[in-house]
Each structure stands twice: as C-alpha cells, then as structure tokens.
Design goal:
The protein is mostly helical. It contains four helices and no strands. Helix 2 runs antiparallel to helix 3.
C-alpha cells in the first residue's frame, strides 16, 4: 500500500495510528524532528490496509472548492 501511495504524489500521505496522530496534533509538542521520526516509524501498511485509493477530479486541487462531490471517484489511478 505505501508503495502505491508514493506513486501518487511527492507529498505522500503517511498513515498513522490514533496514538501517533494525537502526538502529532499536540499543540504542546516542540520537537519537530522527533515528530517526523515518530510518524515515519509508525507508517506501516497495516494502518492503511483498509484505505481505498480512488482518482478524483481536478477541482480537488483548488482550495476555493469545498463540497462533498470532491471525493467522488472519477476513473483509475494506476
């Protein structure tokens, strides 16, 4: 799964478990490098095994767009 994610974009999404996400979002955290290491270490296929990867329309790339239709699948990624 992670290999497929890296094929999508240079800013690849990293799957993380709830504990890692809570640590990542903690406003008191002040060790940026440590947080990045934590997320990288926790990026395992088992966290993302339930994900579905679908192609979406180009409208998703515009920050002015905000609607449920943005996540509707429109074809194939691979």
């Amino acid at each position: 799964m992670l290999a497929e994610l890296t094929a999508l974009h240079d800013r690849v999404p990293l799957p993380m478990n709830r504990e890692t996400m809570q640590t990542w979002l903690d406003p008191q955290a002040d060790d940026a490098a440590g947080l990045v290491d934590l997320v990288r270490a926790g990026a395992h296929d088992d966290v993302a095994e339930g994900w579905t990867i679908d192609a979406v329309g180009t409208a998703v790339g515009n920050v002015r767009n905000d609607s449920p239709e943005l996540i509707q699948p429109v074809g194939s990624l691979f």
